[in-house]
Design goal:
single chain; 332 residues; alpha/beta; binds nicotinamide-adenine-dinucleotide; binds magnesium ion
Length: 332
């Protein structure tokens, strides 16, 4: 069973006694910086001179300096810039400013797990990753609650790295909900597998294949869109609230019967064999190497895939249909 830690297991004074740099002010960065500040922690935000996030962080009462200045001032450096650029930010701004006894923190283990960042031996290397988007992390904190976090230590140079990570998690409200101990390896590999096989890749491919099957059989795209994409939210909301059993309790007996007999025909032994290959390519670093090569080449295939799917009938149909749904709020 997983090891869980709560408020009483964490000592907030540890992080209150340190100087924290939060690099990046996006989804996670803003939530960490503001909540740590509200927990009485000495925080500065590190952002490049031209960054659009600067004005926002300053408006919210935070002191903003460059990433290098932040790393130099601080003895706990939380890296919350996009994963593919973390190695560059590390080389340019963090490494020259790291001292023995400092702690390097991450919200995801990608760059440590796959050795794109190799911190020196005298530095603690920790992870505190909320299991939710940054805006929920911040809102829960303000309401006196918290989002569960996972915490890990890759390198314990000082002997106090895990207590420091728990203290940090307490500063953003994580121990109010519960913190689960993990490792950089487990977090990174399961995160990549989950998003590829199930959450993003698996779900998108399932929706597209179902939609195409109906349209190719002569059904109207609008009807196929409702059946294969729109209604998925209702099903996922039920699973989120109460697992598969609540979803099955809520749908009709006919739908539940179809779930049992047809589901395993769609996601079958072949699918699972392919999932195992996907996991092996994550574990042996093939995925990470290929993705960084694609990123550093300027994202040629990524942009091709994005364009092709953007023009897909599923998406063009959806854009029109969502105009009929006053309650669907497409902010972006
Ligand atoms: P984001 O894209 O929302 O924000 C990135 C921020 O970095 C922006 O403020 C951007 O201005 C800033 N930035 C870009 N280049 C920079 C540079 N050179 N120096 C300093 N700042 C720079 O990113 P995010 O989604 O908050 O992800 C940050 C980390 O948190 C990642 O490791 C990610 O895997 C992890 N994470 C994210 C979530 C989530 O819900 N989004 C959840 C768990 C973990
Ligand atoms: Mg994840
Ligand atoms: Mg991920
Ligand atoms: Mg239906
Ligand atoms: Mg139905």
């Amino acid at each position: 069973m997983a090891e869980l830690f709560y408020d009483d297991d964490a000592d907030l004074s540890i992080i209150q006694g340190r100087k924290v740099a939060v690099l990046g002010y996006g989804s996670q960065g803003h939530a960490h910086a503001l909540s740590l500040r509200d927990s009485g922690v000495d925080v500065r935000v590190g952002l490049p001179e031209g960054s659009k996030s600067r004005a926002k962080a300053e408006e919210q009462g935070l002191r903003v300096v460059t990433p290098a200045e932040a790393a130099a001032e601080a003895d706990v450096i939380m890296v919350l810039v996009p994963d593919p650029i973390q190695a560059k930010v590390y080389e340019e701004s963090i490494a020259p400013n790291l001292k023995d006894g400092d702690a390097l923190f991450f919200g995801h283990g990608f760059n440590i797990r796959f050795d794109f960042i190799k911190p020196p031996a005298g530095v603690d290397v920790c992870m505190v990753a909320p299991k939710g988007p940054g805006h929920l992390v911040r809102r829960q904190f303000e309401e006196g609650r918290g989002v569960p976090c996972i915490a890990a230590v890759e390198q314990d140079a000082t002997g106090g790295a895990f207590q420091l990570a728990l203290s940090y998690a307490k500063g953003i409200g994580g121990t109010r909900a519960g913190v689960i101990k993990t490792t950089f390896t487990e977090e990174t590999e399961t995160d990549l597998f989950g998003e590829q096989a199930v959450l993003c890749g698996g779900a998108s491919a399932l929706v597209k294949a179902g939609f195409e099957t109906l349209v190719e059989a002569g059904y109207q795209p609008e009807i196929a869109y409702f059946e294969c994409l729109h209604e998925l939210k209702l099903i996922v909301d039920l699973m989120y609230e109460g697992g598969l059993e609540k979803m099955r309790w809520s749908v009709s007996e006919t739908a539940e019967w179809g779930d049992y007999v047809t589901g395993p025909r769609i996601i079958n032994e072949n699918t699972k064999a392919e999932m195992k290959k996907v996991l092996a390519e994550i574990q042996d670093g093939t995925f990470a190497r290929n993705w960084m090569a694609e990123y550093n080449a300027g994202l040629p295939k990524y942009n091709e895939y994005k364009k092709a799917d953007g023009d897909h009938l599923l998406e063009t149909t959806g854009r029109e249909l969502r105009k009929l749904m006053s309650w669907v709020d497409d902010e972006n």
